[in-house]
């Protein structure tokens, strides 16, 4: 039945109805053929046997009447009655002739023909006897006429009646056979028609059941599959048993189920990846937030240290200006001579003390520059980690590092100069003790100290300017850090929202059941 299941529904219906119609046509043709047979039997009875019987019975009826007319001829009391009897006999003979002619047209059986030939011979003998009887009766031989009427005439008459009875029996038998044939045909036709009707009904029900099963079974399976898919079960196995519309429907449902299975699998994979990525982003944001807070703390410490450095640099600049003034005074005193040697010694002691303070300050500046360099290096590393947003911060950190290196270089040079000044102040102190002999050298040394102090003042001014730039850079770094913190908070919120959306999407997709 696979070929039937693979037919289109329209062709199944057409084939089923065509089969029923063909069987109905066969039944109709058979019924018509059997009705024709019944009609032939009825026609044979109506057109052959019954008219023959009717014609034979008409002859049978006419023979006794003629016999009565003969008796009237024999027993006539006068010539007039005899003449009337002769006329009646003549009339009966004419009627018999017509009846015999009508009957002869209906003869169809050989047996009947043989019997009728016997009747014809007997009828010819009977006519001959009738003429003799008429002659004898006309001669007035009444007794002879009566004897002939009761003798040969009666014997021949009875032979004719027997012949006609036999003819009627033959036709009755033929009529009975036709009737039986019609009954047999009717009974057989009824049985066949009933059998064909039952067969048609059975075949029609079988075809209807086959069509219904071929249509309803896949449709029920399709409804079941659609309900399971609607409930989210994508593990259902969809099979197509035919190539008709229902098979195409099952094939489409299978393609739809496969597509949904693929989409849901991809969505689940995507949601898992989104969940993992959002978790990693959230973890990274927490780490970045912590680092940003640490960076902000470091910037605050750097700002505090820079404030101290600024104060120290200002004090250094003041000391440099004072040293410059003292150097000028020392130059004036040296030019005045030995009378101010004592003041020069005191001044040199003050210079020595100031130089020591300056050396200490320069050491502090050098340490601050070193720390600034380290902080700038860390800031550059953090800016590199921050990526695109930290690019500007990296530039500023690079400038800060450059300034710190320059400050360290200047501080080193100042320290060298201060050390040299201290040594020379010591030498000057020794020379002061020698007084005038070394006054010229003291003046020269004081002038050199004046130049060095001027350089220290210039370096202090330059360092102050660099520190101001560092302060501005740190301020910018603090602003960028605050912006980074805000962006980190926004990114954390976005990551949390993404994680929530992924969770909701996972919850929605979890309704579907798929094969792992």
Automatic annotation (TrEMBL):
Instruction: Tell me which UniProt keywords the record has, alphabetically.
Output: Coiled coil, Membrane, Methylation, Transducer, Transmembrane, Transmembrane helix
* Positions of the HAMP domain: 213-265
TM helices/strands, residue ranges? 13-32, 192-212
Name the CDD domains for this protein. HAMP, MCP2201-like_sensor, MCP_signal
Residue span(s) of domain Methyl-accepting transducer? 270-499
Q: Which Pfam families match?
A: 4HB_MCP_1, HAMP, MCPsignal
- Keyword Glycoprotein assigned to the entry: answer is no
The parts of the chain that form a coiled coil are 86-113, 470-508
Source organism superkingdom: Bacteria
Keyword Secreted assigned to the entry: answer is: no
Which protein family is it in? Belongs to the methyl-accepting chemotaxis (MCP) protein family.
Can you name this protein?
Answer: Methyl-accepting chemotaxis protein
């Amino acid at each position: 039945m696979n070929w039937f299941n693979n037919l289109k529904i329209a062709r199944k219906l057409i084939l089923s109805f065509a089969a029923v119609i063909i069987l109905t046509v066969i039944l109709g043709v058979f019924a018509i053929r059997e009705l024709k047979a019944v009609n032939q039997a009825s026609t044979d009875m109506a057109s052959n046997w019954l008219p023959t019987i009717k014609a034979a019975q008409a002859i049978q009826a006419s023979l006794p009447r003629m016999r009565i007319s003969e008796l009237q001829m024999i027993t006539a009391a006068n010539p007039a009655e005899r003449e009337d009897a002769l006329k009646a006999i003549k009339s009966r003979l004419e009627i018999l002739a017509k009846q015999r002619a009508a009957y002869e047209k209906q003869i169809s059986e050989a047996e009947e023909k043989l019997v009728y030939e016997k009747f014809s011979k007997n009828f010819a003998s009977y006519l001959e006897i009738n003429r003799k009887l008429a002659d004898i009766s006309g001669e007035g031989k009444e007794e002879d006429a009566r004897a002939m009427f009761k003798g040969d005439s009666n014997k021949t008459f009875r032979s004719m009646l027997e012949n006609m009875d036999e003819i009627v029996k033959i036709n009755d038998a033929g009529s009975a056979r036709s009737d039986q044939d019609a009954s047999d045909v009717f009974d057989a036709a009824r049985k066949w028609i009933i059998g064909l009707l039952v067969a048609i009904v059975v075949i029609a029900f079988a075809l209807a059941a086959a069509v219904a099963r071929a249509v309803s079974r896949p449709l029920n399976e399709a409804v079941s599959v659609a309900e399971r898919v609607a409930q989210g079960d994508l593990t259902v196995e969809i099979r197509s048993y035919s190539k008709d519309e229902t098979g195409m429907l099952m094939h489409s449902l299978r393609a739809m189920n496969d597509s949904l299975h693929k989409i849901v699998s991809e969505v689940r994979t995507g949601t898992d990846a989104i969940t993992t990525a959002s978790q990693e982003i959230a973890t990274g944001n927490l780490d970045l937030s912590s680092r940003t807070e640490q960076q902000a703390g470091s910037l605050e410490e750097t700002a505090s240290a820079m404030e101290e450095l600024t104060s120290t640099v200002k004090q250094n600049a003041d000391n440099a200006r004072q040293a410059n003034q003292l150097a000028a005074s020392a130059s004036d005193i040296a030019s005045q001579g030995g009378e101010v040697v004592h003041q020069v010694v005191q001044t040199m002691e003050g210079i020595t003390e100031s130089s020591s303070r300056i050396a200490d300050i320069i050491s502090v500046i050098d340490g601050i520059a070193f720390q600034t360099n380290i902080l700038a290096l860390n800031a550059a590393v953090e800016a590199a980690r921050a990526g695109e947003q930290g690019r500007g911060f990296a530039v500023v950190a690079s400038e800060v590092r450059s300034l710190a290196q320059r400050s360290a270089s200047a501080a080193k040079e100042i320290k060298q100069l201060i050390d040299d000044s201290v040594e020379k102040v010591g030498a000057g102190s020794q020379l002061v003790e020698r007084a005038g002999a070394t006054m010229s050298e003291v003046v020269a040394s004081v002038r050199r100290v004046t130049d060095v102090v001027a350089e220290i003042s210039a370096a202090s001014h330059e360092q102050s300017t660099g520190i101001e730039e560092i302060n501005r850079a740190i301020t910018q770094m603090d602003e960028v850090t605050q912006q980074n913190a805000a962006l980190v908070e926004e990114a954390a919120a976005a990551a949390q929202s993404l994680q929530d959306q992924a969770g909701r999407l996972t919850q929605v997709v979890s309704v579907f059941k798929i094969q792992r």
